[in-house]
Write a structure and sequence with these properties.
With 294 residues, the protein is mainly α. The two termini are 35 Å apart. 40% of the residues are buried.
Length: 294
């Protein structure tokens, strides 16, 4: 449940920040007339994400077992790829996200209502589709038949919406660069578990060999139905009897990805010293929490 809460919080907060920046900029520049098209684009993006998630969930139920496993494994790998790209992108651009969105919004204001709807839709829609895909893959990997993964996602998104509102009202200030670095690192760990489980799905679908080649089996020590087994499963997608392929790919993904993600961003010229990256700054002007009150 914690891993799904983290997904909902991380992805939901990104979308919330985008919405806050767009709305605050329109209010600040006196373009309240453009709020309705922006909210329309946001609403369409949310509906698209919900429809995509529903299609994944209910559409897969009509497939055979092998087809379900093949679909689940393939989408899990795609989801891990998207989330990996997202956490690296956000770490590098968190500080400049506001400026980037302002530029896109200025161009859309000059083009008219349709451009405003499209800008809001694209800004939020990408986050929504990524969230729907990764949440579905994570819930599929949990596979415990309980609503806890979905509850975790909903709680995470609700927390993100509340934080977004506090940012907009100027009631909350945090270092967003550090926040996205820490949550991104934890999300990489979660993604490693989803990737390993996705490969297991492909093995069960006979797309990959080695289903019977177990790396180890600690089911006797860590029963899957025990409280600590459930905890490990929920947080890390831990499996007590993984295959050799699962463990190998888990390590090959987690170690280098986490090392690259936590490495300093950017290097200074001169004297060969590493420069503190700009996106680690805490300058208030770079945070949506400075947005004027509506």
């Amino acid at each position: 449940m914690f891993s799904n809460y983290l997904i909902g919080l991380r992805e939901g907060l990104e979308a919330s920040l985008v919405v806050c920046i767009l709305i605050a900029y329109l209010v600040k520049t006196g373009r309240r007339d453009a709020l309705k098209p922006v909210w329309a684009g946001i609403a369409v993006a949310v509906l698209l994400a919900l429809g995509f998630g529903s299609a994944l969930e209910f559409g897969s139920q009509e497939l055979t077992f092998e087809a379900q496993e093949a679909l689940g494994g393939s989408l899990s790998i795609i989801a891990v790829g998207l989330v990996t790209w997202m956490v690296f992108w956000m770490r590098r651009t968190a500080r400049h996200l506001r400026t980037e969105l302002h530029g896109k919004l200025d161009a859309a204001l000059a083009m008219g209502t349709g451009a405003l709807v499209a800008t809001a839709f694209l800004a939020v829609g990408r986050e929504g589709l990524e969230t729907a895909l990764f949440v579905w893959a994570s819930v599929h990997a949990a596979g415990d038949g309980t609503p806890r993964p979905l509850i975790g996602v909903i709680l995470g998104i609700a927390t993100a919406v509340a934080l977004g509102w506090l940012f907009y009202r100027g009631a909350l200030r945090i270092n967003l660069a550090k926040f996205f670095t820490w949550t991104g690192g934890m999300l990489v760990v979660v993604a490693a578990g989803v990737l390993a489980y996705g490969l297991h799905d492909l093995q069960e679908a006979d797309w990959l060999p080695g289903l019977t080649d177990k790396a180890f089996d600690v089911s006797g020590t860590i029963p899957p139905d025990s409280w600590y087994g459930t905890l490990l499963k929920g947080v890390f997608n831990f499996q007590p009897d993984p295959t050799v392929l699962q463990v190998t790919v888990w390590l090959l993904y987690l170690v280098p990805t986490l090392a690259l993600f936590l490495a300093p961003v950017g290097f200074a010229s001169g004297k060969g010293k590493v420069k503190a990256p700009d996106d680690q700054g805490t300058q208030p002007d770079d945070r949506p929490s400075t947005a004027p009150r509506a």
